[in-house]
Amino acid sequence: MNKRIKFADFKIVKNDEQKYIYCVNDNKIFEIDDKTLALLDQEGKTYEEIENDLSSLFSKDELDDLIKSMHEFGIIENRGEKLKENSNKISRSISAITLLVAQDCNLRCSYCYADEGKYHNSGKMDLATAKKSVDFLIRKSESDELGVCFFGGEPLLNFTLVKEVVDYCHKKEKEIGKKFRFSMTSNGTLINKEIEEFIIENNIRLQISIDGDKKTHDSNRYYTGKIGSYEKVLEKTKSLREKGLLDARSTITTKELDLVHTYDFLNSIGFNRVALSPAFNLLNVKEYDIMADSFVDFYLNFEKRIKEKKYEEVKNNIMFMRQLGDIHNSRVRTTACGAGNNMYAIDINGDIYPCQRFVGNKEASLGNVFEDDYRQKDFLERTTVDNFGKCNDCWIKNLCVGGCVHTNFSLTGDINVPYEPHCEYKRKIVAEAIKIYLRLSDEEIDELFKDQNKLSKSS
């Protein structure tokens, strides 16, 4: 028994009077007592040394049983073992593409990362490039269901191509025996009756970029001359909102930090699901902390709704549920999202990028649909979290997974180097999410995750 005890990476989480151990490598959470906490302070000691040092707290049998349980639950293990094991499970098969059908936009939003939607290369995709892109997806995918997202700029500036692509995909469905699903992100200002009917007929999931109430939206999303677009968006989306067929994506800036107000307002005017996304490119160091506080308040508001048994409202908040779900299911991930993994963006020239945010950065191109040079493997190897040196010692590395690689790229110039204020932002939000989860009763967990295996809080 001379082998020295080595614990898996962990963090102690205190919630009210209770203490928990959060296991970094596999997201498991266990309730602990003061005696267990004392054992966790014995890192690097032999069994005999621990038995001697803690003789006033444990009998030999009690210590044996506790160490055995820690082995069974993976609390005592080789560091990084589980993470390394899961890094081999990265998908090599893509299932979706984002088509930049129009690299241009009719709005001039204040926070646009895409050079007014042009991505430094204004133009529209032609049918030959679009077909080649769909063929690329079919050839590279092992999935039975394939996704095509129409994006821009403003994709409805090239609605003719959207129709042609959907038609081409439907023809391909009959040939290959697979199903296509369609989505689109739009500013909503160009929707007309023909477009609405087409969206409904082809079951296109449409997400509208809208930042909240009129004052908030018009302060950031406007036409040339800073003429606000809010009234036009509401006018053009009225029918689809009344049918419950629209989602909303709200870009959050420091101009409006009452996230509960923004979320509830967009729900109240008929948007089905609402995503809140901070404009990190506009924030200074101090504002990251302010933004984190806003999201903590937002999460706490939804905890209150759980206590009020408003479960359907809560489950409709995809962002909140995804955060709790990662904790609940002890998910082990190696990449932050599907960018460069199971999804790609393709620009008007057929150049392939990890996601739409990288379009225009030629050094990030992974190939072209008209060529055979396809560099997915190199990108994937770079973006697995074990290649983010800064993340190795971070306790939320398996819930953040290095963060958005484009956010890293835009803020530090390197996809593998997260920006420290952003790291602090994420740690603050994740810590609160874990505490919220720990405050949930078994009944509340069952209601929120009815279709998933229940994760009990073990002691």
From TrEMBL:
Needed cofactors: [4Fe-4S] cluster
Q: Which PROSITE patterns match?
A: RADICAL_SAM (PS51918)
Outline the extent of the Radical SAM core domain. Answer: 91-309
Q: Which InterPro entries match?
A: 4Fe4S-binding_SPASM_dom, Aldolase_TIM, Elp3/MiaA/NifB-like_rSAM, rSAM, rSAM_sf, Sulphatase_maturase_rSAM
Instruction: For this UniProt record, give its keywords in alphabetical order, as a comma-separated list.
Output: Iron, Iron-sulfur, Metal-binding, S-adenosyl-L-methionine
Q: Which Pfam families match?
A: Radical_SAM, SPASM
Gene Ontology molecular functions: iron-sulfur cluster binding; metal ion binding; oxidoreductase activity
NCBIfam families in UniProt:
rSAM_more_4Fe4S (TIGR04085), rSAM_PapB (NF047865)
What protein is this chain from?
A: Radical SAM core domain-containing protein
Organism of origin is: Clostridium saccharobutylicum
